[in-house]
Amino acid sequence: MALVQFRDSVSVADYLADEEAATEKHEYLAGEVHAMSGASARHNLICGNLFAALHRHLAGGPCRVFMADLKVRLSVNDEDYFYYPDIMVACNPADQASHFRTQPSVLVEIMSPSTERIDRREKLFAYRTLDSLREYVLIEQDAPVALAYVRTEDRWTTQRPEPTGVLTLPSLNFSIPVAELYRGTEGL
Fold it and tell me: I need a labelling partner for 179 at 20 to 30 A (CA). Which of 14, 123, 160, 185 fits?
């Protein structure tokens, strides 16, 4: 992820206005704007497989699933952050901004070698500050590996299903075989 510095510090209002007109996506980290690189075909298929399964599962209920182009807005140490998670599930009907959500229930990142460190550290720390968040899921792009951080009561636990196992999101009453996440990625 390359750093793009537009000004010394960019305001939230300027970032949101610039992002609406931008041809590329950028994340906003406490006044700094970072350009995002494109995703691989494998990344896109994994994301699409999970999105489709969640979309079917959540149909008719209060939760909505979003893929890649809707931002999550959060505050860490009184600083604003905007990220583009690969998948976001939001269940609060009052959380209806047109270009972002502030109260997601589930966030998912598909990790590539270039994003793994950010997804495992920076985003893990930032996302877990969200009171609404119930699960944060990390899926490896290049191997059948999934890891879910699950909030239970006031603590976080981890779920690491085997490649032949099942990934479960308790807050959504949803399960999917890990192998199903990687359907269609053979040979890529």
Answer: 123
Mean pLDDT of the chain: 90
CA–CA distance from 104 to each of 33, 44, 64, 145 (Å)? 22, 21, 10, 23
Tokens 């970032």 -> residue: 15
Contacts of 175 (CB under 8 A, 6+ apart): 166, 167, 168, 169
CA–CA separation, 110 and 75 (whole Å) = 23
Q: The whole model's pTM is what?
A: 0.89
Domain-wise residue ranges, the chain: 1-37, 38-73+82-181
In percent, how much of the chain has pLDDT > 70? 96
Are 88 and 107 within 8 A, CB to CB? yes
Q: How far, CA to CA in Å, does 126 sit from each of 76, 109, 114?
A: 7, 13, 19
CATH topology of domain 38-73+82-181: tt1808, chain A (3.90.1570)
Q: What's the longest Cα–Cα distance across the chain?
A: 49
